[in-house]
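Supplementary Note 3. Input sequence used for the single-chain structure prediction.
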Amino acid sequence: MILSQQDTDSLNSVSSALNVDPQWLYNVINAESAWNPLAVSSMPTNQYRLSKGLDTVPEYARGLIQFIDPTAQSLGFKDSQDLIDQYPDISSQLLGPVYAYFAKQTPFTDENDFYLSVFYPAGRGKPLDTVLPDSVRASNPNIVTLQDYINNVKKNFVQEVIQTASQAVETIKSNPLIIIGFIAIIGFVILKNYKKV
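The predicted structure, written as discrete structure tokens, is reproduced below.
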């Protein structure tokens, strides 16, 4: 996802205030919502309780970091829908509830600790091979351990880099002027180095 300048400035501002690498914040948001501030989880967050007949109404995570209702309520909202209604765009959500959430979670010991503060705060400081509770796995079927979540965040980043590189190659292939310019630069470098020999 290529962010607007305003969104990039907001990302950098929040990262600086939290004293974390902006790439960490970028990565976790990319994995959680693909930078869609109105994203809604595909699986209910209370899937386990629904399957056991303990709940009858599905609840969903929403927003850039997939706020669940209790988390949104702890930040002063009625629920996660109220949060995204009040902060419907990337910059406002970053500077508002995303920052407020992470500020409550500081300090972060490392990148993994930062990622886990979003997905499963109770897992912070635990070995990465720790198996998640059934209630967490029911809503996240492909994530069994803490390491699985970390791998998911990092995999999404690698996939985005590959996609961006592929788009750049397609742009270059479809624009002959870029190809001619690239060949000219290579030719210049070769001639310059040839003259030195």
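The chain has a mean pLDDT of 89. The first helix runs from residue 5 to 18.
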